[in-house]
């Protein structure tokens, strides 16, 4: 059962009304629509709560996809939470402070991948610190220089927008894909692109801020050698 993923069109939606479509064997709650981002692409799933019309609250520990095509999302309740039934109406509300920090960090990582135009071998989005791993033949990366370049992009306050292209359009433009380890979800007929005006364009299903100015101050905290050609670059807010 497909979930209407509202976060894909509006990352700033904090809550929505929804109906319970199913409860999975592990206890995950599938809704017909949701503002909860589900774990994927290095970005953790949202936390938050579901509340019923009678006032019952169900804390949500994480949201995850139940299928490889990423069409159905299960909201995993905290242990010991009240049960819901198919057909129940709920209000789904995310932990906005945590989500917004991840939005800022995820957009900052896109800028980092523009400053370091190398294949990305891995990554992780956090609230305060995130990382990208790059396939870089030579070392000699300078933390302060990279920070300066990313901060210059942030200062441009460039608009961040999303649009959709077909699977065929992406296959015809393989250069859009920067990640080696995680491929864009394909098979539904369309792929979401995130564009940072005049700075970056790549497939991404994650949540982002509306402009680079919203990111605020960031700094490269560490560059690690993780193999002969792999370099891990850590980025922190503040």
Could you walk me through the main structural features you see in this protein, from its secondary elements to its overall organization?
With 238 residues, this protein is of the alpha+beta class. It has 2 domains: 4-94, Elongation Factor Tu (Ef-tu), domain 3 (Beta Barrel), CATH 2.40.30; 98-237, 2-Layer Sandwich (Threonyl-tRNA Synthetase, Chain A, domain 2), CATH 3.30.980.10. The chain contains 3 helices and 15 strands. A 6-stranded antiparallel β-barrel has the order 2-3-7-6-5-8. A 4-stranded antiparallel beta sheet has the order 9-10-15-14, with helices on one face. The longest helix is centred in the middle third of the chain and has 20 residues, at 96-115. The radius of gyration is 19 Å and the shape is elongated. The N and C termini lie far apart (41 Å).
* Number of E strands: 15
- Radius of gyration, whole Å: 19 Å
Give me the number of helical elements.
Answer: 3
What fraction strand? 35-45%
């Amino acid at each position: 059962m497909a979930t209407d993923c509202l976060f894909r069109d509006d990352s700033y939606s904090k809550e929505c009304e929804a109906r319970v479509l199913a409860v999975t064997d592990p206890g995950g709650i599938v809704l017909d629509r949701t503002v909860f981002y589900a774990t994927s692409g290095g970005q953790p799933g949202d936390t938050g709560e579901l509340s019923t019309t009678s006032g019952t609250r169900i804390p949500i520990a994480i949201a995850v996809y139940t299928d490889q095509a990423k069409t159905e999302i299960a909201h995993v309740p905290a242990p010991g939470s009240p049960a819901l039934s198919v057909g129940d109406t709920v209000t789904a509300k995310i932990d906005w402070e945590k989500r917004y920090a991840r939005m800022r960090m995820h957009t900052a990582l896109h800028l980092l991948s523009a400053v370091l135009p190398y294949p990305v071998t891995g990554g992780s989005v956090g609230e305060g610190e995130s990382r990208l791993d790059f396939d870089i033949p030579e070392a000699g990366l300078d933390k302060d220089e990279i920070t300066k370049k990313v901060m210059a992009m942030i200062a441009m306050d460039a608009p961040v927008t999303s649009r959709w292209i077909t699977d065929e359009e992406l296959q015809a433009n393989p250069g859009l894909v920067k990640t080696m380890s995680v491929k864009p979800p394909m098979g539904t007929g369309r792929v979401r692109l995130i564009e940072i005006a005049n700075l970056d364009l790549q497939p991404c299903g994650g949540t982002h801020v509306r402009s680079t100015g919203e990111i605020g101050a960031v700094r490269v905290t560490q560059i690690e050698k993780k193999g002969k050609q792999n370099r891990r670059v850590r980025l922190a807010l503040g």
